[in-house]
Amino acid sequence: MKTKNCEVCNKEFSSIRENKKTCSGDCHRKRVNTTSGRLVNEKISTGNVGAMSELFVSADLLKKGYAVFRSLSPACFCDLIVVKDNQIFRVEVKTGYLNENTNNLSIATSKYAEKIDWYGVYERNTGIIYYLDNKKKFLPH
User: Fold this and answer.
1) CA 119 to CA 139: how far, in whole Å?
2) What sign for the dihedral angle of Cα 100, 103, 109, 110?
3) pLDDT tens profile 63-100
4) Does the N-terminal or the C-terminal CB of the chain have fewer CB atoms within 10 Å?
5) What domains does the chain contain, in order, with CATH numbers?
């Protein structure tokens, strides 16, 4: 058993695991949230966070002149269908977190990536919306 200091609260703790960096589950979550860029600490269900992200991205696309259609099914392969200038795009909305230290945008991957045209990413810490193609390359919007 090795004695270490927690990377989050600096409290001394013992562990048999060589790579353990935190003293508790709470400190582990704080460390993971910080390294991923997740700064928001509100207690909102993941389903509500996802629905809010869809609405924020929908409103942004409406402001940009798109007609926006939202899926009724949570199991659908995309969240939005958007139309502009007779072009139709399938959009998967994700909640993302931008790590200020690495400048990496963290989002979950969609299992339907080949069936969508874009990701609309609502960055929850700042409220900025990013658009990426289905290979996760930034789109100019």
Assistant:
1) 9
2) positive
3) 999 999 999 998 899 999 999 999 999 999 999 988 87
4) N
5) 2-36 (no CATH), 46-133 (3.40.1350.10)
How far is 101 from 122, CA to CA, in rounded Å?
19
CA distances from 92 to 5, 12, 77, 83, 86 (A): 41, 44, 8, 14, 20
State pTM to two decimals: 0.72
CA-wise closest residue to 76 among 58, 90, 57: 90
The answer for residues whose C-beta is within 8 angstroms of residue 75's C-beta and 6 or more apart is none
Residue position matching structure tokens 């990536």: 113
